[in-house]
Amino acid sequence: MNPAIAKRKPPPRKRSRKSSPWNLRRARGLQILEAPQLAQLDWLAHGFSTRPGGASELESHHDGGESAEKVLNLGFTEWDSRERVLKNRRDFLAAVHADEMRVIGLRQIHSDIVQVVSSANPGSPVDAPKADALITNEPGLWLVVQVADCVPILLADTKRRAIAAIHSGWRGTLQRIAEKALGRMQMEFGTQPGDVIAALGPGIGQCCFEVGPEVAAEFAAKFLNAQEWFKGPLDSLARRDSDPNWLPWLTRRPPGHALPAPRAHLDLIAANRAILSFAGVPPTHISSSGFCTACCTDLFFSYRRERITGRMMAAIAIL
User: Fold this and answer.
1) 215: domain range?
2) Of 193, 225, 251, which residue constitutes the final position of a domain?
3) Which of 318, 301, 285, 311 is CA-nearest to residue 75?
4) Is residue 178 in a domain?
5) Residue 272: which residues within 8 A CB-CB, separation 6 or more?
6) Confidence of residue 174 (pLDDT cuts 50, 70, 90)
7) What does pTM read for this prediction?
8) Angle between helices 177-189 and 268-278 (to 10 degrees)
9) Within this chain, do residues 155 and 202 fall inside the same structural domain, yes or no?
């Protein structure tokens, strides 16, 4: 078997079922998603990659059949070859007009670490910094983050002309990484939150993001308004998490026969919207794509739904 083709048996892939207020443009045979508010800035370029196209081959189970699907995988995964990923990256960067600029990436670790990037200290592609957010105010530097369910966030200061690229999963959201990136922009560049436009790219939606008592308890402990982001018994989950033996005690079931712990659904998009709004970004300056990656696996990769899957990128640069 071709080593670049991965075998997997996930649930049937889901098709996109709703349109988005964002623009999905075609370039070099790829589909690039753009946020309208960012697209209006003539000094800035940006783009969110999607799944279709590309040189990688991923075994697909769709409509009851199996086939090798051509996909734009931008991450160095076990099932894909390095050569194909590098070609995909070149094609994506060319599609967003980044092929002649310096590209800055990260070794993402689900942290709240923000890396400041300049032409004097751009970092090395071989030894990328461990962090989950990049900021700069210098032209010619493409900031990129990788995702496959976590929320990619791009920030643009319309007055000071500074930008940020942020990777925010549930751990990053819990640590308020978007707010900390904005705060670092204030410190380094004099950014005022009221001048910032924020674009929240495709990520797993509340409909598909189920979490357990541990996550619920952490959010309830750190955010007074956490209940607004959950669908499910957040309060009872948070309380019960303090006693891991509560369920067998209530049901009087023998060890190994306890019911599964209750779950709740977390809305990462709503949480990051609220975090940015609380930090001073006007709600009218915050937009999201409207896509759930797990619901739309014809257009995006979803690690939670597929497990063996690819990675997408969000990219932003000052021209």
Assistant:
1) 210-251
2) 251
3) 311
4) yes
5) 151, 153, 168, 173, 178, 200
6) very high
7) 0.88
8) 30
9) yes
On whether both 105 and 160 belong to a single domain, the answer is yes
CA distance 50 to 305: 16
In a domain, 192, yes or no: yes
Q: Which of 113, 114, 119 is nearest to 191 (CA)?
A: 114
In the prediction, which pLDDT does 254 show? 62
258 part of a folded domain: no
pLDDT tens-digit readout, 106-159: 999 999 999 999 877 665 555 688 999 999 999 999 999 999 999 999 999 999
pLDDT at residue 119 in the model: 79
91 and 143 co-located in one domain:
yes
Question: Which own/partner contact pairs does 227-234 have at CB distance under 8 Å and 24+ positions apart?
Answer: 228/270, 228/274, 229/266, 229/267, 229/268, 229/270, 229/271, 229/274, 230/264, 230/265, 230/266, 230/267, 231/206, 231/264, 231/265, 231/267, 232/262, 232/263, 232/264, 232/265, 233/262, 233/264, 234/264
Instruction: Give Cα separations from 225 to 43, 54, 140, 206, 234 (angstroms).
Output: 36, 41, 39, 16, 11
Query: Which tokens in the block code for residue 97?
Result: 């007009």
Query: Would you say 205 and 295 are in contact if contact means Cβ atoms under 8 Å apart?
Result: yes
pLDDT digit string, tens, across residues 227-249: 999 997 766 666 654 455 555 55
Q: Tell me, yes or no, whether 181 and 310 share the same domain.
A: yes
Residue 257 is assigned to a structural domain of this protein: no
Total domains in the chain come to 2
| Dist. CA 291–CA 35, nearest whole Å | 12
- Cβ contacts of 144 within 8 Å, gap of 6 or more: 103, 104, 105, 134, 165, 313, 314, 315
**CA of 60: how far to CAs of 2, 6, 308, in Å?**
15, 9, 11
**Mean pLDDT score, 147-172:** 98
For residues 47 and 29, membership in a common domain is answered with yes
